[in-house]
Amino acid sequence: MTVQTERPPTGPPDVVKTDGRPGDPGKPRERARSLAPYLLLLPALAATLVFLGWPLVNNGMLSFQNLNMRQFILHLTEWNGIDNFKEVLTGEDFWRVTGRSIAFTAVNVALIMVIGTLVGLLLARLGKRMRTFLLVGLVLAWAMPVIAATTVYQWLFAQRFGVVNWVLDKAGWHSMADFDWMGSQLSTFFVVIFLIVWMSIPFVAINLYAATTVIPKELYEAASLDGAGAWKRFTNVTLPYLRPFLYATTFLEIIWVFKAFAQVMALNEGGPDRLTEILPVYAYIEGMGNQHFGMGAAIALLTIVILLALTAFYLRIVLKQEEDEL
Amino acid sequence: MWPNAVAVVLFIGFVFPVYWMFATAFKPTGDIISENPVWIPTDVTFEHFKTAVEADHFWTMVGNSLTVTLLAVVFSLIIGLASAFALARMRFKGRKGFIIGFMLAQMAPWEVMVIAIYMIVRDADMLNSLVPLTLFYMVMILPFTLLTLRGFVAAVPRELEESAMVDGCSRMQAFRRVILPLLAPGLMSTSLFGFITAWNEFPLVLVLNKEAEAKTLPVWLSGFQTAFGDDWGATMAAASLFAIPILVLFVFLQRRAVSGLTDGAVKG
């Protein structure tokens, strides 16, 4: 996004009032004008502070409370210091879920970025008609609402009459004819990952393709004249151009995948036996499901901290870059 | 010729789940639960759509989803546009801070904050109401709306506005008559993403609105399959009904949507 160069507020000062009579640029008017941007920003700022800021603060406060069903019903506030955090951090579950979440994110993001990039480069190579054809397919997958897509995947991977099991059976893998995908941790994760990767590739591929269209063709010609082969041209011309884009997309995908609550929850509610809970689902099930609201809030806070840590590196680059640019 | 062959395989891979949803929705139950899949529905039926539409509370939830989504989009456009105008056109102290602040707000961990939000809404005695949903969705899509619109406002040449003011328009009039019409495409693509986000939102409504009268379509759909057992025909019909508005919007606005998203999401 381009950032326009700034000029002082108005070119010709607004000396013309609605009734067409020149107004006097007196002091109160000056002040009103200097306040104008803040007044314009006020509604958005207030709404964000109340509906985003307050839940964040509230989450922090809840995480230091002993808040279970009893306290919840009686509206009691029982502070218990860092007990929630002590219990969460010394328990095995939290670390197991954290490790699982990070591995889950890593696998998804790696698959999304690698396949997405390859599909994007393929789009750049295709002829116009073939490209439009593939773009339509990608856009359809991209536009599918998460819950609708999750429901469709339940049907594709259904134990009985699911088309996936039928294909595997016909392909000679007969033991899969009646396979229960939701029956084990690995196979459930396989379906979730398949779903997320399928839904996420279009964003990466289409945008990557768009990014390749701005690479000057002369660079490739020059590289060819210098005797660069396909691979050299890719690493020396294409890749440097795409690098900022690849960083940005990887960063976004990490955030999105790490918080993939809807897919996991709607597919199998973190089951079987809570084995596919990732951090947001774990916080939800501990907090809402088991009605340990304070514990849930503590897990939520830790989840946010982990998310920040995972993305801090990139966040710093972006913020710094923005400051330079503005 | 291998790129074309790969493209065809990929096309099938990406479209198949969408196709299978629609195909199943139109097949008679006998064709759905058959030993060999019926790839193309020859015997088309609308019975599953009827089941879905006649399911309890379906129309209530359509109404709820539309109300919450449209109101959230409209509100966020109005207050987002005011801020976008200030950030694009005025110079004032703290401008950078606001922009960076809204960029951070765009990454808000909504999925993780459900417990805190639940407690707040309960204390306000607003569970099972559409009001908090609307407000939270508005704030959820606000940073994206605001930052994207800022880019669109900045792209309108300042001279147009200035000459309108020389011709006797107030700043407000210049905005309404000159800038607003030029922003129409920007407003459209921004509201598309707002619409998709709010239409799809799942975690908050799952937690806040447990009563059927106050649910929205995503929760209805996620519960549908449980309620209807293995009636995949009805489930796929329900999924189709839920997905169609977005699929249609997306296909129509695809080109604009893509550039809007990269601008807005990647670089705020």
TrEMBL record, chain A:
It comes from the Bacteria. This is Sugar ABC transporter permease. Residues 1-30 are annotated as: Disordered. It is found in: Cell membrane. The chain crosses the membrane at residues 35-57, 102-124, 133-156, 189-210, 245-266, 293-315. Gene3D superfamilies: MetI-like. It holds the Pfam family BPD_transp_1. Keywords: Cell membrane, Membrane, Transmembrane, Transmembrane helix, Transport. Residues 16-30 have a biased composition (Basic and acidic residues). Residues 98-314 form the ABC transmembrane type-1 domain.
TrEMBL record, chain B:
SUPFAM superfamilies: MetI-like. It is a multi-pass membrane protein. It holds the Pfam family BPD_transp_1. Its main location: membrane. Residues 62-253 form the ABC transmembrane type-1 domain. Coiled coil: none annotated. Keywords: Cell membrane, Membrane, Transmembrane, Transmembrane helix, Transport. It is found in: Cell membrane. It comes from the Bacteria. The chain crosses the membrane at residues 66-87, 99-121, 133-157, 178-199, 232-253. Belongs to the binding-protein-dependent transport system permease family. PANTHER family: INNER MEMBRANE ABC TRANSPORTER PERMEASE PROTEIN YCJP (PTHR32243:SF18), MALTOSE TRANSPORT SYSTEM PERMEASE-RELATED (PTHR32243). This is Carbohydrate ABC transporter permease. It comes from Streptomyces durmitorensis.
